[in-house]
Design a protein that fits this description.
The chain is α/β, with parallel strands linked by helices. It is 33% helix and 28% strand. The protein is built from nine helices and 18 strands. It has a seven-stranded antiparallel sheet with strand order 6-7-8-9-4-3-12, with no helix packed on it. It has a six-stranded mixed sheet with strand order 14-13-15-18-16-17, sandwiched between helices. Strands 5-1-2-11-10 form a five-stranded mixed sheet, with no helix packed on it. It starts with a helix and ends in a 7-residue tail after the last helix.
């Protein structure tokens, strides 16, 4: 029990310093990161035979895996494997997003691959149409093929069969969990990792303005500008959830942030309202109700994602650590919102009650401080004109960048918030 108490006391500080940096070191390395004896994914190949599509993963050696279906779009097949290096002949690595992708065939429109944690990698097959796993098996190396091959056959199905397959898992491997440990003080001086999430994209245009302006276009332009500003300051490593007109599920956006070890997650949007006269910026953090409901779901599933690889990982300990992380993350998100709002006031019009709380799913990661910035109201003609103006977007993103600088340096916080951030007792 004493061991648990000591760990919990050091966890909150180590969470924001240790885990992000440990994960970032692995994630930012991308496709070329060396990792000792771990296996390498060399290619993802597809074949078709009637209503069956065969997916073959060419691996340097046998690895544990599990495969299962997920909803989203026209359905997805997910393959979790022991952590891999990537040298995928038929794929391309998107360094700005921290993931790779390639074209599919048959039932699969495309595939994506990334590191899902320190101990696991994930491949996601986006389906063109409903399909289910027919079988999954491995083929050891032979004289004709030196690679270990993991084969997954998908067969056509209707929506009912696909829904029924959501409870099925193939392979049986369970990704281990890894406990975050505090990093040395010298490691805390490394660059902070900022994940910028440009809302909507691809088939999801978001709000549409009076002049037919798409929210997805504006958020991407703003996200790219913010990335440029931050990188020129030389203080941050910046990861984009998307750098093109691409559709991403909400869960994928938070997964990118968590896998990158983000110190801060900023989701950019442009609001809309039936009252066309409403204008201005607003900042959202996760509501207490949404946080509590998410916590209940995690406890019910026993799925404490942030606790990675404990040798003595009792569910009670995991629950304690999860609650500590969730509480600290919510506090950090509110602290950044407090710093951001004054910077916005100096750059643009803001709405009344500028700091708002809601249950946006992109804010649900329990271990990444996160805010959602509604830059302006695309439904308002004047705000739409501003949003379309590159100079205005630049000024707004400079304000966001200034807030990030202030947040990490402790400037701009109230005395109570500053002392809380430093671990001191708040002034009453």
């Amino acid at each position: 029990m004493l061991k648990i108490v000591r760990f919990c006391l050091g966890f909150v500080d180590g969470l924001l310093k240790g885990l992000p940096l440990l994960l970032a070191a692995a994630w930012i390395g991308g496709a070329g990161a060396a990792a000792g004896s771990q296996a390498t994914l060399k290619d993802v190949r597809f074949g078709e035979n009637g209503d069956v599509t065969r997916i073959v993963l060419d691996l340097s050696e046998e690895v544990g895996y599990r495969a299962f279906a997920l909803t989203g779009g026209d359905g997805r097949i997910v393959i979790d494997l022991e952590r891999l290096d990537y040298e995928v002949a038929g794929g391309r690595w998107l360094a700005g997003q921290g993931l790779g992708e390639g074209k599919g065939r048959g039932h699969v429109s495309k595939f994506r691959y990334a590191h899902n944690s320190q101990a696991a990698s994930r491949i996601v097959l986006d389906l063109k149409r409903p399909a289910i796993i027919k079988e999954a098996f491995g083929i050891p190396p032979s004289g004709q093929n030196a690679n270990y091959r993991l084969v997954i056959d998908l067969k056509a199905a209707d929506g009912v069969l696909f829904a029924a397959s959501l409870d099925e898992t193939y392979g049986g491997w369970t990704p281990p969990t890894v406990v975050a440990t505090p990093t040395p003080a010298s490691a805390s001086k490394a660059k902070k990792i900022i994940v910028i999430d440009s809302g909507h994209g691809g088939r999801d245009p978001g709000a549409i303005g009076p002049k037919n302006t798409y929210e997805k276009t504006l958020t991407l332009a703003a996200g790219l500008k913010l990335k440029d500003i931050l990188e020129r300051r030389g203080l941050y490593d910046v990861v984009l959830t998307r750098d093109s007109d691409e559709f991403l599920d909400l869960e994928e956006r938070t997964q990118i942030a968590r896998a990158a070890g983000a110190d801060l997650f900023i989701s950019l949007h442009a609001d809309a309202n039936r009252n066309l006269s409403v204008r201005g910026s607003s900042v959202y953090t996760l509501s207490e109700k949404a946080s509590d409901e998410y916590a209940k779901k995690v406890r019910a599933e026993g799925n404490y994602h942030i606790i990675d690889d404990a040798n003595d990982s009792a569910s009670e300990v995991e629950g304690i650590l999860f609650d500590l992380a969730r509480r600290e993350t919510k506090n950090q998100s509110a602290r950044f919102a407090e710093v951001l709002i004054p910077e916005l006031v100096g750059a643009t019009k803001v709405v009344n009650n500028t700091h708002r709380r809601a249950g946006y799913r992109v804010l649900l990661a329990p271990d990444v401080p996160a805010v959602l910035l509604e830059m302006a109201f695309l439904s308002n003609a004047e705000d739409e004109k501003l949003l379309r103006n590159p100079a205005w977007r630049n000024n707004l993103m400079v304000a966001v960048a200034d807030a990030i600088d202030a947040y990490f340096s402790g400037r701009g916080m109230s005395e109570q918030v500053r002392q809380a951030a430093a671990g001191a007792a708040p002034i009453n």
